[in-house]
Amino acid sequence: MSLPQSVNARLRRVPAWPVYLVGVLPVFWFFYLGLTGGLGPEPIRALEQELGRLSLQVLIAVLAVTPLRKFTGISLLKFRRALGLLVFFYVAVHLAVWLFLDVQIWNQIWKDIVKRPYVTIGMVGLVLMVPLAMTSNDWSLRRLGAGSWRRLHRLTYVAAVLGAVHFVMLRKGWQLEPILYLLAIVALLAARVRWRELRGAAKMRRVGS
Amino acid sequence: MAGRWKNDLKWSDVTPKADYLNRRQIMAGAAAAAALAAGPALSGAKIRAVPSAYSTDEAPNSYEDITSYNNFYEFGTSKTDPAKNAHRLTTDPWSVRVDGLVDRPGNYDLADILKGVTLEERIYRLRCVEAWSAVIPWVGFELADLLNRVGVQPSAKYVYFETLVRPSEMIGQKSRVLDWPYREGLRLDEAMHPLTILATGLYGEEMPNQNGAPIRLVVPWKYGFKSIKSIVRISLVEKQPQATWNMQNPREYGFYSNVNPEVDHPRWSQASERRIGGGLFSRRIPTRMFNGYGDQVAGLYAGMDLRKFY
Q1: B158 forms bridges with which residues in the sheet?
Q2: Which chain B residues touch A108 with a CB distance below 8 Å?
Q3: What is the ipTM of this complex?
Q4: CA angle B88, B91, B95 (to 5 degrees)
Q5: Mean pLDDT score, A65-69
Q6: In the CATH scheme, what architecture does the domain B47-298 have?
């Protein structure tokens, strides 16, 4: 048995449910830190940032599942739904912190969403994730059929790019950290493109014309 | 839920601020005594400073808040980087080059600059352009004292400042996130205003490195980034000088950058702010025109369209 095969065989015996359990822990941990001074003098801002960063990190893990299988043969597919739902959970708490702890002023919230491009972009990303979270179950997968389910879930790519752009935009100046997140996401999306087929199609088009 | 958690501590059990400040003083111990013996300002833990009528009566933030939450990109872009990295900075010896349109240009040693000035405690509000704020008990003297001493020539219209460039100690300067050196400028009347100070300490102690040691500008009615830190050059000039954030993004950061709740930053509202140190459930407070110093400084901008000159 090759290495990827033996890894896959071992992974088959690991259940996916502990991912949910472990995944919600950081959120409680951050709130605990915020209440006890562990997030510094501005815990609301820090909480927003930690949750935002965590959602992008796990989102990158979600996007890495397919390239990992393509290039190494190791499949983490059975954990992907749990990771994806965790991303949605983190983003939802991130939004809740912004609404209820940070801004708190309802007419300013709406103005921010409409007027501030980085807020608008973040909100669009979140809204795109709602149908994804709602259909992350076996019943929806059967109901939609594998083809349309997969097409719908390509929205993940859009949401991921929007999330990273949101991060780049909210920093003062061009800062390295958010740009690295954006590059990682773009690279993982590029790793999905079947370049050879694309080139082949282009050649066909040229021959045809 | 507030009030659900009970214990047997009472408000009377809380250490009064005067006592914990005293405790710090005692811990500083012999060093403080030596400093008082050695001289008025620089060399120790406790600086003698006289109170000022310009101080706010609002409660200052804790020493920990003020020294652990900083924007000082020379030491990294995160709020906690300066407290982590600024200890590497050598602040002694330190001199400031004073040049341009002045009668007595030269390299002034810090001790020389402080000779003959009266250090005051100025408790000022600080409003960051990022919509957070703090109350800080600075120790410093009026910039006008220094400018009068070096003799400003009549043709000078602006004052230009520069921060030290020393990437070996200011490790944030190894990245090109800003165009170093950090630069700032004031119109001459703003610089001569009695609220504008050069600060050399806070909470009665020598300026912590992360707050801009050993000498920094404090202009309380402008966004915090105008109050340039760790100054090595002051130049009197005729034309409006360069200012780092204005160079970086002129649409977002104007030369004046007066605190103004009615002119939003393109990416966020400036109508409200959050005082740091209030915990997870602190509420925003309305931002005041000129950060609440309008009575003293509004006259400087009479007839100017502050939406245009933001």
Answers
A1: B187, B237
A2: 269, 271-272
A3: 0.81
A4: 145
A5: 95
A6: Alpha-Beta Complex (3.90)
